[in-house]
Each structure stands twice: as structure tokens, then as C-alpha cells.
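Justification of computing resources. Each target in the renewal requires a structure prediction run like the one illustrated here; the chain below, 234 residues long, is used simply to show the kind of job we budget for.
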Amino acid sequence: MKYIIRFRKTGTICYTSHLDIMKVFKRAFKRTGIRLAYSQGFNPHPKMGFAQPLSLGYEGLEEYIEFETAELNPDAGRMREVLMEPLSSIMPEGLELTGICEGSWLKKTLAAETEYAKYQARIPMGDAAFDPEELVKKYMLQDEILTYKKQKKKPEPVLVNIKPKIRHLSAAKDGENMILAMELDQGSESNLSPELVITTFLEIIDRGTERSDIDVTRSKIGFAKNIDKNFQFR
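Resulting C-alpha cells:
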């Protein structure tokens, strides 16, 4: 059987790498006695994976992991009891499981179904006056937003126009901070890292803000199919 778990990643565990978070889940499945199904071939590996890797230091409010089990087949009324509650009880601080659903209806992987993601960046602006809407307008009125981006099968970064991959951009004032809200292409067909948007946006506002002072949160992953309607427990 295939299942999908939704979870939050917040606090200091955000500085734990994607691969180490994968190990956390593998150990949790083992400790709770949930046997994962494995792939076939010379190098079998457990059938589990995240919708999209989360960059180091980012918080994630709606993250997803899919997995297949070798034995368990709980009905809809027992998914919480058999799967979610045992896993939740041993998760480290900062990893909170918030939903579960059966996933056999999903014919592709979550990664293949991913189309976009929403992010929020908290940018310190100091005590100088600023108009967040005007700054966003100045940024988006550029004919092209050019930056260097790493490409597969190419040794050196390539100069690309990232503007077509920005689905929506807005900003609001929060004290001496600006909250930059981004909806960006994500997935195998088209993908834009929020880091490229943040870097090019900082060049436009010209405040000398250090990247290390900016907090980033991924608030949502958008899929080709509406998977939220399938979650029965929150």
C-alpha cells in the first residue's frame, strides 16, 4: 500500500540536511515496526521520497513524504492509529506530522506531480522608510530578470531570464522587515529556486542586506492534482 504523510519542519531542525531528514524517517519506520516495500534489482532501496527537497535553513509548513509498505494495509479509519500516531510519538522536535492519506490513486510520484511552490522571505530593511509595493513593481517592471543559473550537463552556470518562472510576487511591511511572498515554478518541467529571486531582488532594493539575515519559509507545494482533498486527518 502507498501512503502520503504531510508534515511541518520548523525550528532548529531546519538546519538538518535533506538526506539526514530522510534518515530520520527511515529510522522512525524501523523503530515503529512499519516495514517499507523495497525496489527490485541489485541495489534495493526503500520506496519513499519527498515531494520536493527543502533547502537547508528553510522552514516548511506543508511538506510531503510518500512511502509504500510491505505488509500494513489499514483501512481509512485506522491510518492514524496504525501509522501516524506511532510515527508522531518518536519524531524529533520540529518535525510535526499533520496529515495522512492513502495514496494508491496517485499514479505518478509527488515529485512528478509538483508544479509550483509558495515561499515567504523575511528581509530586514532597517529603520529607513520603504514602500514594499513600489519595490516589487520596480523589480517586476524589468523586461528581463537575468541571473546565472546552474544547468544540468553544463559545467558552468548559464545566464538565464527567470522572470517567466515567477508566477506571483508581492510584498508587505512588518515593522522594520519586508515580507516577500513568492509563487514560483517548481518541479521537473520548470523550476526556479527562491534563492535566485532573493539575490536579484536584493540588487534592486540596494539595501546591503546580508543573505544570512533573511529567513525563508516554504508555505505550500502545489500539485497538478489536488491532493489535499484526500487527507482525512489533520
